[in-house]
Every structure is written in structure tokens, then in C-alpha cells.
Amino acid sequence: xxxxxxxxxxxxxxxxxxxxxxxxxxxxxxxxxxxxxxxxxxxxxxxxxxxxxxxxx
Length: 57
What we know:
By secondary structure, the chain is α+β, with helices and mostly antiparallel strands. It has one helix and three strands, in the order E-E-H-E.
């Protein structure tokens, strides 16, 4: 079941970098309501980048 996560804030660290940028997305569509589903959706969108979740609703 698809779920919309609102106000997603995460750290995006580009491949080969040690410093990341904080990113805020108002709406992320994921294939479930779990944090791992949200992480999977973000990793698909930003291929190769490390994603560290900060907060979401």
C-alpha cells in the first residue's frame, strides 16, 4: 500500500563525500508506512547517495 510521507527532512551525502546537505521534501510517496519504506523510496530517488533521516510525518 502506497503512503505519502509529509515534511520529510534528511541528510543527503553524495557518493565519495563526507559532508552532506540537509534536504526537505514536502511529500514523498513510498510503498508502505514504515521508516524503511521511506528510506527505500529516497534511496531510489537519489541513487548512490547516503540518506540519513532526520524527521518526517
